Amino acid sequence: MKICLGENLRALRNKENVTQEQLAEALEVSPQAVSRWENEVSFPDISVLPVIANFFNVTVDYLLGVDTAHKQKETDRVIETDKILRSEGKTRESVDFLREKVREFPSNPEILHRLACSLFSLYHQSGEKFSEEETRAMALESAELCKRALKYNSDQPFASRCKQTLILNYVELGERERAAEIADTLSSLWCSREMVYPVTLAGKEALKEYQENLTLLIDAVIITMGRIKGCENYSDEQLIRLAEVREKLILLLAGDNPCWLNERLFNMAMIQAKIQARENSEKLADTLQGLMKYARNYEERQTGGKYNVFWLSECEDRLGSATKHSSESLYDTLRNFIDKNGIKERFKGNKNVEAVIREIEELA
Q: 3-class SS at 316?
């Protein structure tokens, strides 16, 4: 078993911008002793190790670099369990689970960042109602977790993901200038890992990377268009047009059954359905039919499912990575929409709408 005390001590000191003299003063030893430890000429007394670990807010195991492979396996297990919780929309359960794991692994950057992401999803996207104070507290906690994670791992691409979460929290906290400063440190799209790394590959490896990136870019375009929607007071007609364009883009680029992107299609169709219900539009029946199809394609898709267009031939559905923001199924969401908006009563006598509602009620 290899002990990496010197290397880890030097790395932690450099990250914290602590000199050997400052660390020596805190530990009540000579700067020469710290230098000898870092060069592994000698090692600190065993009683000093917890003091050093506490100084840098890490565990003794982390300081020594003990059982790195074992800890990575533990990290992988935590991440896989959390992926399942998030894919089932169990955001609060994810937060509780990860808080427990952070106590167990206080210096694990990946677990710290996953907890930060789950907290952000809980207060921002889960649909649960929180007071302004509760929301602010969770945003602050999420931001602090990101900063801790960056202290332990500042390498790309992890740091970019962590900074993204930190930026979103700062925006929520109203600290847009602070968020902008961090955003300016990130690479541009054209210099990102997704754009550059596939160039270094060839054959099937390159093809798979490019195709995986295409699914990410599709989602990025859809999310960006959704954010455009929130920046302007668009008319109902314009909102429906935006939803239609986003729907066509997904179907054009990812095929007519685009795996986990069916949830995106469902949410876009729901925008149209809400407007059409409000206006008693005859088009509601067709939109409900589309909602039913997207719900079925999303909820009943299989692990490892493939896209049905050849330009995504190497991609598999990200069944465990598609995060839901509610534990209810899309079937439940659709039925709740019908009940809450009184669609049955308001469209009574409309045979097309009544027929679709009967089909929806029979869904699993």
A: strand
Terminal C-alpha separation, the chain: 53
Q: Name the residue with tokens 């809450």.
A: 340
CB 82 within 8 A of CB 94: yes
Choose among 188, 192, 187, 145: nearest CA to 166. Answer: 145
pLDDT per residue over 64-87, tens digit each? 876 566 678 888 999 999 999 998
How far apart CA 157 and CA 107 sit, in angstroms, is 18
Longest Cα–Cα distance in the chain? 89
332: amino acid identity, one letter: D
Distance CA 305, CA 292 (A): 20
CB atoms within 10 A of CB 176: 12
Q: How many angstroms separate the CA atoms of 134 and 64, rounded?
A: 38
- What is the tens place of the pLDDT at every residue in 206-228? 999 999 999 999 999 999 999 99
Cα distance between residue 183 and residue 25, in whole Å: 37
Query: Which pLDDT does position 170 carry in this prediction?
Result: 97
Indicate the pTM of the whole model.
Answer: 0.74
Calpha distance 337→291 (Å, rounded): 11
Q: 63-81 burial by CB neighbour count: b if 16+ within 10 A, else e?
A: bbbbeeeebeebbeebeee
Residue 2 has phi, psi (to 5 degrees) of -90, 130
Q: pLDDT tens digit string along 15-62?
A: 888 999 999 999 999 999 999 999 988 889 888 999 998 898 887 877
Tokens found for residue 327? 């534990």
d(CA 258, CA 242): 19
Residue 34 and residue 57: Cα distance in Å, rounded? Answer: 18
- How many other CB atoms are found less than 10 A from the CB of residue 144? 14
- Cα 168 vs. chain centroid, distance in angstroms? 11
- Cis, peptide link before residue 106, omega less than 30° from 0: no
CB 153 within 8 A of CB 109: yes
CA atoms within a 13 Å half-sphere pointing along the CA-CB vector of 188 = 2
Dist. CA 271–CA 276, nearest whole Å: 9
| CA dihedral for 62, 64, 69, 74, sign (positive or negative) | negative
